[in-house]
């Protein structure tokens, strides 16, 4: 957490005359959107206005959250987003650890911005900003926003809108509270959020019970060809661009697909490879169990990173070459 002196400095920055912007990472997920909107609603309770900017669009199943329609999508509103960042006095950087993680458009704007910058994130090896709250042991940035509210001694300001958003972020980034990093503290915060008005049944239904025909077709396709290597320890799933087009892929349709590989008995790593819909590179998602470190593996071999048990990457070869390289590199890993 921020030091007491840093908290005091931040409090002095949280004033109506300062223009505040909240930015999250490229391809926003549930924790990115939940933490950003949760912080926006909290600042509103403090009598402050803040613009939430995301680099590109986010999945439809997250657009039920209060004021999600007010989020500025930089890909669609470049001038508005650019001017907001340029004119900001204070920028919150949520759920990513380095400027380039906000994409080729927003990243350079963020680097050039003159505003004071506050990082709140749980990924490893954060860049240096004016204020840094980085903790890789916390399972979700949305939980860190709650800790930040506590540090400001403003917990009584948590209302139903804040609770709904933060609950969503924690739920999605813990895989429904299943991942190892989910702690007793996480559950205490969840209990507090429920007491403040978060509705677990509604949130779960709105966020996860949203299958489309295209998603189910794609899921059936990859489940029908899962490959298991390294003596049953590693599962491989993949999708090609023409398959995405064939089944009418929409953003968010493949969310959670990588987790199916870990549901196979005996697997310790699941890797999901997908051709980008528009550009010639492969998006990669890694998940693991126990102490198998896919973060370092992704950093070493696939231009990515993340957490010990959840990481992503990007590879410039075609999908066949990418999977072949993965198989070679994963066989050399000792686990």
UniProtKB/TrEMBL annotation:
<dbReference type="GO" id="GO:0003676">
    <property type="term" value="F:nucleic acid binding"/>
</dbReference>
<dbReference type="InterPro" id="IPR038763">
    <property type="entry name" value="DHH_sf"/>
</dbReference>
<dbReference type="Pfam" id="PF01368">
    <property type="entry name" value="DHH"/>
</dbReference>
<feature type="domain" description="DDH">
    <location>
        <begin position="19"/>
        <end position="170"/>
    </location>
</feature>
<dbReference type="InterPro" id="IPR051319">
    <property type="entry name" value="Oligoribo/pAp-PDE_c-di-AMP_PDE"/>
</dbReference>
<feature type="domain" description="DHHA1">
    <location>
        <begin position="234"/>
        <end position="331"/>
    </location>
</feature>
<protein>
    <submittedName>
        <fullName>Bifunctional oligoribonuclease/PAP phosphatase NrnA</fullName>
    </submittedName>
</protein>
<dbReference type="InterPro" id="IPR001667">
    <property type="entry name" value="DDH_dom"/>
</dbReference>
<dbReference type="InterPro" id="IPR003156">
    <property type="entry name" value="DHHA1_dom"/>
</dbReference>
<dbReference type="Pfam" id="PF02272">
    <property type="entry name" value="DHHA1"/>
</dbReference>
């Amino acid at each position: 957490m921020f030091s007491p002196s840093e908290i005091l400095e931040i409090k002095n920055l949280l004033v109506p005359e300062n223009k505040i912007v909240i930015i999250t990472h490229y391809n926003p997920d549930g924790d990115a959107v939940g933490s950003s909107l949760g912080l926006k609603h909290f600042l509103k309770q403090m009598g402050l206005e803040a613009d939430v900017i995301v680099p590109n669009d986010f999945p439809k199943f997250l657009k039920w959250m209060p004021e999600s329609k007010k989020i500025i999508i930089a890909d669609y509103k470049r001038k508005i987003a650019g001017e907001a960042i340029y004119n900001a006095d204070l920028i919150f950087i949520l759920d990513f650890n380095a400027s380039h993680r906000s994409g080729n458009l927003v990243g350079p704007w963020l680097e050039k911005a003159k505003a004071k910058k506050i990082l709140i994130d749980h990924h490893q090896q954060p860049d240096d900003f004016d204020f840094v709250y980085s903790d890789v042991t916390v399972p979700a940035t949305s939980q860190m926003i709650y800790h930040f509210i506590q540090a400001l001694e403003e917990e009584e300001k948590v209302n139903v809108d804040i609770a709904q958003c933060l609950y969503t972020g924690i739920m999605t980034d813990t895989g429904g509270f299943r991942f190892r990093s989910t702690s007793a503290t996480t559950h205490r915060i969840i209990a507090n959020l429920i007491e403040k008005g978060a509705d677990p049944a509604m949130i779960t239904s709105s966020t996860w019970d949203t299958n489309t025909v295209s998603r189910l077709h794609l899921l059936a396709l990859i489940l029908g060809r899962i490959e298991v290597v390294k003596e049953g320890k590693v599962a491989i799933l993949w999708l090609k661009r023409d398959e995405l087009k064939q089944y009418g892929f929409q953003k968010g349709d493949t969310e959670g697909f990588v987790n199916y590989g870990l549901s196979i008995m005996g697997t310790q790593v699941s890797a999901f490879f997908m051709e980008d819909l528009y550009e010639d590179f492969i998006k990669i998602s890694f998940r693991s169990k126990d102490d198998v470190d896919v973060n370092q593996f992704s950093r070493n071999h696939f231009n990515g990173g993340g957490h010990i048990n959840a990481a992503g990457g990007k590879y410039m070869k075609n999908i066949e070459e990418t999977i072949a390289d993965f198989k070679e590199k994963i066989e050399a890993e000792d686990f």
